[in-house]
Amino acid sequence: MHLTTLLLMAALIWPVGPPRPEIIRGWEPPAGPYGPGHRGLDLAAPPGTPVHAAASGVVTFAGRVAGRGVLTITLPGTGDPPLRTTYEPVTPTVTAGTTVTRGQPVATLAAPATDDPHCPESCLHWGLLRGDSYLNPLLLLHRSPSRLLPVTGVP
C-alpha cells in the first residue's frame, strides 16, 4: 500500500452521521466482475440526510446512472489508478470538477425508488474502487491501533 494511502486512511470519515451509522448490509465481494455480491456498504439514513465527502478529492461524476443519483469523488495521491469513493442514491450538491474537502456536504440522500429492493428502508450505498476493482470502504476508516495485553502466568 502506498504511504499516501496509509496517510489518507487516518483522514476518512463516515459519509453520514455522526453518530456512526448502522451498516444495513456489508461488503460482499463478488467472485468475478459480473458475479453476485455487494460492492460497498449500505448505511442507514433517512431521505434528506446530508452526505459528506469521506475524504478530500475531486468530484469526477455527479449525475444519474440507471435512474439513481450517483456521486463519485477521486482521491488524489492514492496510487495509480487512484482510489474513488461513490455515493448513491443521492442528489448531488456539487458538480464534476469541484474540489471537495473531507467532511464537506456534497449531496443529500434521495428517497429510495419504490421498485428498488436494494434497501428495505432508506440507506446510502457507499462504495470504494481502484480502477475497476471494488474494495471494502471499511478498510479505509481510521481505527485505533491494536494493543497487546501482557501475558501473565506463563513461565
Task: Give a verbal description of the structure.
The protein is mainly beta. It has one domain (3-27, 39-140): Glucose Permease (Domain IIA) (Distorted Sandwich). Helix content is 5%, strand content 35%. The chain is built from 1 helix and 11 strands, in the order H-E-E-E-E-E-E-E-E-E-E-E. The chain has one helix at residues 3-9; strands spanning 23-25, 41-44, 50-52, 57-65, 68-75, 83-88, 90-92, 99-100, 105-109, 123-130, 133-135. The strands form 2 sheets. Strands 1, 2, 4, 5, 6, 8, 10 and 11 form an 8-stranded antiparallel sheet that branches. Strand 10 (123-130) and strand 11 form a beta hairpin. Residues 1-10 have low confidence and may be disordered.
